[in-house]
From TrEMBL:
Chain intervals with Polar residues compositional bias: 1032-1043, 1078-1089, 1122-1131
Annotated segments matching region Disordered: 1026-1046, 1061-1089, 1110-1131, 1169-1251
Biased composition (Basic residues): 1241-1251
Species of origin: [Candida] arabinofermentans NRRL YB-2248
Name of the molecule in the record: Uncharacterized protein
Protein location: Nucleus
Keyword Electron transport: no
GO CC annotations, alphabetized: nucleus
Residue span, RRP12 N-terminal HEAT domain: 26-247
Main location: nucleus
Family: Belongs to the RRP12 family.
Amino acid sequence: MSSGDDQLLQAMELDAKLDKIRSQVNSKLENQQQLALILQAIDENLKEQNQNINSVAYFISFLTLLDQCCINDEIKDLNMATCSVYFLDLIAPYTPKTLLKSKFSEILTKLAPTLTNSESNAPLLRSSIGILETLLLVQDMSAWINSNNYKISPKRGLTGLLELSLDPRPKVRKRAQESVNKILSTVPAGPSLEHPASHLCGEFSLNSIISLIQEQQQNQKNNNNKNIANKESNSQIIHNLQLITSITNANSWPITQISPLCDVLLEISKTSDQYLVSSSFGAFEGLFQSMNNEIDNDKFIQVLNVMFDLKPSLNDQHLAPSWLAVIAKAIISYSSNVDSFQCFLKLPQVFKIVCEFFNSQIKEVYISASQCLIAIVTDSINDLNLLSPPSVSIDNYEKIDDSINEISELLISLLNGVKFRHCAKEICELIAVLFDKLKTRCNPDFIPLLEIIGEWRSNELDGFELNTVSENVIGIAISSIGPEVVLQTLPLNLNKPNEIGRAWLLPILKSNVRNAKLNYYIKEILPLVEFFESKINNLDSDSINSKIFNTIISQIWSLLPHFMDLPSDLIESFTDEFASKLAQLLYEKVELRTVICHGLRLLVESNLAYSQGALENPIMNQQFPIEISKKNIDYLSNTIASKLLSVLFNVFSQTPMEQRNYVLETIDIYLQISKPEDLAATFDKVCSILKKALDDEKEDDLIKNDDPMGKSKIPKLSITMMDLIVLMAKYVPTTCHNALFVIFNQTIKIQDVQIQKRSYRLLTKLVETESGLNSTMQFISNILEILLETSSTTLTASKATRLNLILSIVKQLPSDYLHFIPVILSEIIISTKSVNEKTRESSYQILIAMGSKMIEFNGVPIKNSLNDKDMPDSIASLEEFFTMCSAGLVGATPNMVSAAITSISCLLYEYHSKISTDYLVEINSTVELFLTSKNREIIKSTLGFLKVSILSLPEDITTSNMKSLLTNLLMASHEHKNHFKSKIKHIIERLIRKFGVELIEECIPEQDKKLVMNIKKSKARAKKKKIADAATSTVTGTGSNSKPLGDSKFMSGYDAALYGDSDSEFEDDESDDEFNKPKNNNNRSQQYISESRDQPLDLLDKQTLSHISSSKPKKFTKKSFENGTVSNSSFKTKNGKLVINENGISENNGDDDNDVLGKNSIDAYVEAVKQGPVRGQKNRLKFDKKEKGDGINWDDEDGDRRNGNGGGRGGFRGGRGGRGGSRGGSRGGFRGGDRGGVRKPQGKFRGGKKF
């Protein structure tokens, strides 16, 4: 691109920015409006003077304006100066560099007052910094050197910028530090690759931070209030460290100042202030990461040498961990940014220096040393350096080998040294990481380490603290260098009684074996099974030794799948002989089927995944090339697969249904790699067996319903064969597809639920493949015809699988077969009310898929005449599909009408944005009419539709119909005895939240306006409670993390629309919705358990309920008789009989009203009559409400309040009764048909509305 094009692009970019400012002339923000007005005035001025409007004209105009605002280095008009500098900062990058370079001193002189004046605010300074940055970026090498000793030079401007980099104002400081970094990163053309101002920046920041540290130390000696002094100086030091980081990130820190910088940073790292330590590490990291090429190699080595020279004392628990952390970052940066190979060669030296800290007895120090080396090994060793020839040169290979040998010798000396016993755990953790990183390059240098650690574990001392870490090292060694190498060093010796046995290795092998030699397992480990089986034959089956030997046998067999996980010698080891042995065991030993099937499956899966590049590891890819895994698959496909499938089919037919999954998975993986001709032959055999099995079955053998107990039995042969055919459907060649369609056609009509399910699954699986889909499309007309014919003959338990097939067909339905949608639609709609959740979910998905088809083929004719000659054809569109669904609204049964409303709700939620407004109004008004229905099922679905419509429809549609909507809603509530009161209240709450309470109050019927008042009060109470809870949680330090059901992340958008809580503001109110939350414990009926000390209550006894009472039982103790609370004359026992005092009056002065002994029979009768039922309004039975605390409402009337003495607030209440009166009104006003305050569960939209 030419320079002219660049200038044009820059001019267009500047114009775009200025146009954006011009558009803000009417902004409500004063600062934006002021900028627009000033720019407008400058534009008019330039036009009046007939000047070219470009960046130079703008720059000169605003510079002149700035000069007018400043007189004698003082700012007279701060607002105007701020606006002028803002525009200069915006325009300067687009101003020609030659102008900025030649007029540097003049521009800087005019800018100086804004940079140096104490009254300059943060916005003014930030813009001034931006202008200064632009000026300094365009200066060449000669200007920076200033050989003429000009008084105003770039270095002087940079010095001012450095001072602003330490400004206490965060935004000013950040802008200045970013400018310093950008200036130092842009080195002017010249012989040096280092910026001429780097020494200036380094000296300034270093001197500043040293003086701050010295000042802090002096203040700590003199100042009594050390905390305040430390806090202020720490902040300043952090600001300075941020400046150092900006300089180091630009790779501009002078080499001569590296040593003092490291010294200062390490000194800061010793402090206990985590922010200081973090900032110092950031400076270190910037220093390391800035050196990122071979040119910086010498510089980096110098930094490392300086760091090693600053090594702290071994027992310095403050500085040593910080120093070790910095060393780790340095080595990692050197490897990743400069030279990973040279870094590896220096690792022995680094290990020797860092391992000295293992001598420390301070736990923090030697743990830090271990973590330092672990980080270095993990992040600095490049896998490419560990490759073998010819991928690397022999010379480099040997150098790496020498380095590994040095490291291993150092670690061996650590493990053998008694003085390192205290940190043996940390050393073992380091060895484990080395094994994991170096892989096979550990062999043979690390074998002595393995021997030492293995000896520790072999001692088998209980409570030995290194057992766990030893097992971890051995396990990682197994995965890195292979089990055969480890077992040669640490043999199992299970069949050698005179040697140390290591049965504990078996579970370690199980967890870590992969990509090992299968032949080693077959020859060395598996024969141990026969050895222990012979031992068991000579023992009692219940003996301890017999159980131990059985456990060992199980552990040996459990290793089989892991040795078959990507074996390195599959072709040599997995022979016909070994495969035959496994097949025989599958037949003979049921307990081994799971293990063997798992191994056979892993054998194929691991090779398939590896051949597709699932594991990208350079070392493993060199040792086990991907080509070998492809050869393994070919070998299994050509020689093993067909034979194994025959065995697996037989085993599958002998396995109970609930235990078949692992066999099915194994069959599936071998079907994937089988040759087409083998698959075709196997498929023909299975088909012939199925035909014979179906022919032999009698009518009594058919299963009409699902039998839960049948899963534990071996199913009949026809079901087994159908399972196999379903599994093979995806893999058989296209020549077999005709046979699949024949099987589908025949089995779909059999009145056996298990056969029907598998018949539908057969075609569903076939459609999943491209070839199967093509074949299906060839027979689509026949398939659709069969689906329509079997609509009435499909068993209920098979509905879900049928709908899955219909869903797959609809998604692929061609435009010529859209007439299938209207004819099958009624079945889909009615399925939305199924009791089976899977059926409901599938029906919703089908409706959405049908809608998508209508959108996809919009305008295509729907040939309804093919279904019925009397039906006219129609045009595909989304509105037409809604019309089809609306036909269900005139259904003969309430169930059909309810299902149609539910279906429309689902479609409205999904496609409301793609339907015209007029049609939305029509749908909404049509469905709203069903609020007048007398059927509760229809009302329930209609309320669900209204929830969706309020959420989805444009606001103007809902507002225009608000009065009618509210009238119908409240009428439905009254008509159905408040059965839907809670749901309707939630809808009104949504309306208030969306449209405001004023509109709702205006449109709601006059007699129900107190409902709105109740909701407003509920909202106010909820807010108060929320504030109180927040205050309580703040004081106690606790908070609630629970969420309401509607917030569940597993809920779909449609579910959330239907079932979501109305508003979080209402969920905290303890009484607004009695369906959502239990009442206060104080209002619950009091229940008591009566039991004696001699006979405690048995909760399993059928008579338990007779011991539960609403009256508190009296407890009579010896003390009661002594103090006169209970008189001895009240009752006496004689010959085991209860004798009641004739006067019938207790001597407790009537204190206990519930004591039956304190009342005579006449009083009891009168009270019973008073509490008896009376006929009230509408001839309903009513009881006296003077309760004794049992909390039971015996009224006939649904939804009525309890009449407390004070009376509750009557009418239509949102779940909360009145609070007037001494005994309180009812809190059950909004009950929706509940009896006497006993709450019914607020279920989930029954009848299939979960979607």
